[in-house]
Amino acid sequence: MNISDYKKIIRERMGDYRFSHSVNVAKEAKKLAKHYGADENKAEIAGILHDITKEMPKEQQLQIIIDSGIILDNVQLHAPKLWHGMSGSIVVRDELGIDDEDILNAIRYHTTGRAGMSLLEKVIFTADFTSEERTYSGVATMRKKSKKSLEEAMLYGYQFTFKDLSKRQLAIHPDEVACYNEIVLQISQTKGKNK
Q: In this predicted structure, what is the pLDDT of residue 195?
């Protein structure tokens, strides 16, 4: 299958906005992959498919996760917005036959991130924040940072996310905190070496 095939598949599963967003994430992911030396084809595939189950009923997403043997932690259980990354990676693997672990992880962790992310995972995480249709306050800064450093863009994205979640008194997943801490420590060690 190619990108055109994947576009047809997701077109049937989502409304106009989500489809447009997925196309834009695929485009942005391909650009970022080229800029940072990641696999452009994998980036485009992960980008187009990252929200494949986003508009699926929550109960159905949960069932896919349970049937696959994934055991949700307490934060995930109470945060249905996180389910589409997990259920999406399972659908992409089981229904579309994509067994590339990097693509599957990029889809699974595009919302939370995690410690030890691959370059492709960072590309998809960032492309989801910076796709063309995004208009949130700070998106111009996020886009600027994404051209300079994926890690700096991700930190900025986490600051935005943590502020929003804490304002709404929602739990922050440990994967998000672990990724944030890992990047902060890497950047501070790099700055220390450059002094």
A: 53
Q: How far is CA 149 from CA 122, 125, 135, 154, 189, in A?
A: 10, 13, 21, 9, 16
Average pLDDT of the chain is 96
Q: Which fold has domain 3-193?
A: Hypothetical protein af1432 (1.10.3210)
Residues 6+ apart with CB under 8 A from 132: 24, 27, 28
Q: For 49-108, what is each residue's pLDDT tens digit?
A: 999 999 999 999 999 999 999 999 999 999 999 999 999 999 999 999 999 999 999 999
Complete DSSP assignment for 70-93: PPP-HHHHT-GGGHHHHHHHHHHH
Tokens 């992960």 -> residue = 46
Nearest 5°: CA angle at 86, between 147 and 116? 50
CA distance to 8, 23, 109, per residue, from 136 (Å): 28, 18, 21
Calculate the dihedral angle through the C-alpha atoms of 7, 10, 11, 16, rounding to the nearest 10 degrees: -110
Per-domain boundaries in the chain: 3-193
Intra-chain end-to-end CA distance of the chain, in Å: 49
